Amino acid sequence: MSVAESANLASAAKAALTGIEGKELTNKDRMALPVQDMPCQEPAVRAHNMDEVAIGYTEAQARVEASRCLQCKNAPCVSGCPVSIDIPGFIKLVAQGEYHGAADVIRKTNLLPAICGRVCPQEKQCQAPCTLGKALKGVDKAVQIGRIERFVADRERASGGSPMPHVAPQTGKRVAVIGAGPAGMTVAADVRREGHEVVIFEAFQKPGGVMVYGIPEFRLPKAIVREEADKLERMGVRFELNTLVGRTRPLAALLQEDGFDAAFVGVGAGLPKFMDIPGENFVGVFSANEYLTRANLMRAWAKDRADTPIYPSKRVAVLGGGNVAMDSARMAMRLGAEEVHILYRRTREEMPARAEEVGHAMEEGVVFDFLASPTEVLSDGKGVVSGLRVMSYRLGDPDPSGRRSPVAIGGSEHDVPFDTVIVAVGNESNPLLAKTTPGLAVDKKGHVLVDERQKTALDGVWAGGDIVLGAATVILAMGEGRRAAASINEYLATGH
Known about the structure:
Blueprint: H1 3-20, H2 27-32, H3 43-46, H4 59-67, H5 76-79, H6 87-95, H7 99-107, H8 113-119, H9 131-135, H10 145-158, E1 174-178, H11 182-193, E2 197-201, H12 210-213, H13 222-235, E3 238-240, H14 251-256, E4 262-265, E5 271-272, E6 285-287, H15 288-295, E7 315-319, H16 323-334, E8 339-344, H17 355-363, E9 367-370, E10 372-379, E11 385-398, E12 404-408, E13 414-417, E14 420-423, E15 427-428, H18 432-435, E16 461-463, H19 466-469, H20 474-494
Helix pairs in contact: 1-4, 4-6, 4-10, 6-7, 7-10, 8-10, 11-13, 11-20, 15-16
């Protein structure tokens, strides 16, 4: 989006707001208001910098978009939200220009609105059941809830941030939180509010989990995550970084020897999957986890300020069709690759990645090779990647997920030159904690088993987020964290 286009969006929004200001809108009026597009950096510019792609709504845009809400009595959007935000309530306040009030409504159930407004898949959650979207026949025409939420959160940050939550007097109870991702940070906040001492144990050198190691700066500025961690510290939560529970210290020892009364396991699902094809051990093949961790957490992109090594690439192949694949491909562009391809064995319609992220990647010059998947990684004879042997596919009948199954086309294999391959086909649970914690029940995929209150098979231990769900979303992890925190608080108050 060019500077002129962004200016036109802002101008049109001002004109629309002038036309509706002080007017009692009917549903017909609301349905006639245009969806407010998100201003963004120009693709040719942003593909070579790490600044945030989306610039954010202007005040006029936010109010016009909020005015599109039909204020349905049954509020189907709320049922689509994993933490049940009062969406009509905060949107109504935005339409009226009451931004602080809107922020207060959001924070009753969502502690990380600046993050969720940026990275959550609203089109599959709160916006999917939107009455307006259904009436206009398209989820892209639904009220843009996430964009409005981001506007509210960013305005609050610009005015000094949200007020500190009230912390009850000390109870003498201690809670260990393992993992400083969205689930762990949510549990820490809710448990600390009740006056319990909270210590977060984090394996990495920075708090935030996937929000700092997995999601790139151009989608989620790390300063936002740092602000949330700082707020927890001001509440009295203590971080023990570079501490890998299960190796540095067993989980059982925290409860039996270190005086913790309860523990929450929120370590995520950070064990990368590979495709199990020949050649995946060649130099130049990376898991998306490693590639993005080097670039995000270890800031390999800041070559003038960081000594983190990153593989020099000219032609990059990214395998997969999810958000992590989009992040990897777009990061490779920003790290200097001349050409980046995403290989996906279905079509765009079946891609699990957010439509917005796919669109941004295409705008930035990423090439999409649909109905294609590798059968082998090729080398130069010295163990270094030189390309992929690629099979072509067609779509067959739907699989259990509802997506049409890819069917290999016999005799279609062909070789394509690449010097780097990034595998982004999903993650599994790291087995370390289960192997070092007797009695912690897990399923065959290594996901920790919990009841409806997030309680594990071990007394005094709860779990939530990706270690329970598999690779999910920030807001789903937060929802599990809130349930776990409520159960932990009840347990500490009553003993059961």
